[in-house]
């Protein structure tokens, strides 16, 4: 299983809820954590690659990028 980290601009619970909903629908996600406080999404997957997950997060309309740390 691979862990991917993303910086996602989220301003409220609705924003983090939209990201949570998108990741729940995405097949291949084993585990994830959405932190509104840290503006960070951490996803674990054994079948999806970094770009596929990033595309799903971006479909929510939130600004997102691969975290550099």
TrEMBL record:
Keyword Repressor among record annotations: no
Gene Ontology BP annotations: copper ion transport
Database matches in InterPro entries: Copper_transport_ATOX1-like (IPR051881), HMA_dom (IPR006121), HMA_dom_sf (IPR036163)
GO molecular function: copper chaperone activity; metal ion binding
Top-level taxon: Eukaryota
Family under the similarity heading: Belongs to the ATX1 family.
Protein name: Copper chaperone
Species: Entomortierella parvispora
């Amino acid at each position: 299983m691979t862990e991917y980290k993303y910086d996602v601009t989220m301003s409220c619970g609705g924003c983090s809820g939209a990201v949570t909903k998108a990741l729940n629908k995405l097949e291949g996600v084993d585990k994830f954590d959405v932190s509104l406080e840290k503006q960070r999404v951490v996803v674990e997957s054994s079948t999806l690659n970094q770009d596929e997950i990033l595309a799903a997060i971006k479909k929510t309309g939130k600004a997102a990028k691969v975290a550099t740390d």
